[in-house]
Amino acid sequence: MPALSDLIRAANDWLQIDAIADYPGALNGLQLANSGQVTKITAAVDACLPVIEEACASGANLLVVHHGLFWQGAQRIDGALYRKLKLAMEHDLAIYSAHLPLDMHPELGNNALLVAALGFAGKGRPFAPWKGRDLGLRVTCDLDREELLARVAAAVGGTPKLAPGGAGRVRELGVITGGAGSQIHELAATGIDTFLTGEGPHWSYPAAEELGINLIYAGHYATETFGVKALAERWAAEFPGLEVGFIDHPTGL
């Protein structure tokens, strides 16, 4: 039965938790401790109440998520937050969150795993710098746009939305999972002709048309299921005997 402290130390090291800047509310790393032992890990995208309820019912004692408990920053512990914390503590459920460190990781990251699922494993080059790190990956390819859309659909298990501002042949593809559509102007300036992300604001669609770039929205949730699953599996590989599961709680966004 592995110690929680050993698992957390290993994940923090793999993901360089302390070295990678993130949004203040991310609070990467261990967000809630348990009594100290782990037998079952459950992964999910969001630390929302339905997910925590299901994790507790499953007997998990470590929940790993991409979006943690404290996105709104300091807040009163009442309402849903109180219920989540109370339920987790009553069931000895620890909660670990990894946002940008997990997006960026070259093996366990959402970007790398999505690029691999599209058939470009090992071909991604870091791009889109932010606070000293590159947020995404860039791939040089020669692919019909409809074929790329089919690959995206297969990878995320859903139908992507296309803003068809660019050419029908994709040659420079940029990928940033999650909600990076608002960065369309600066990313178009890098020379990519197609940008794949999870979602973006309404204005990003006409902006893509005006910039002459294809913008593919594949779903914020759908593009960020990869990393938490991979991290849970990595723990299980490094610490034999751990049970691993995944809670699918899609938002449709």
Number of strands: 11
Count of helical segments? 9
Radius of gyration: 19 Å
Series of secondary-structure elements, N-terminal to C-terminal: HEEHEHEHHEEHEEHEHEHE
Q: From the coordinates shown, what is the CATH architecture of the largest domain?
A: 3-Layer(aba) Sandwich
In the CATH hierarchy, the third-tier topology of the largest domain is known as Udp-n-acetylmuramoylalanyl-d-glutamate--2,6- Diaminopimelate Ligase, Chain: A, domain 1
Strand content: 15-25%
Oligomer: single chain
- Mind telling me the CATH class of the largest domain? Alpha Beta
Task: Please state the overall shape, judged from the principal axes of the Cα atoms.
Answer: elongated
Overall pLDDT metric: 97
Q: Specify the structural class.
A: alpha/beta
* Helix share bin: 25-40%
**What topology, given as strand order, has the largest sheet?**
5-6-8-9-10-7
Note the topology.
Elements: H1 4-15, E1 29-32, E2 40-46, H2 49-58, E3 62-67, H3 79-90, E4 94-97, H4 100-104, H5 110-117, E5 125-130, E6 133-144, H6 145-156, E7 161-164, E8 169-175, H7 184-188, E9 194-197, H8 204-211, E10 214-217, H9 226-238, E11 243-246
Parallel strand pairs: 2-3, 2-11, 3-4, 8-9, 9-10
Antiparallel strand pairs: 1-4, 5-6, 6-8, 7-10
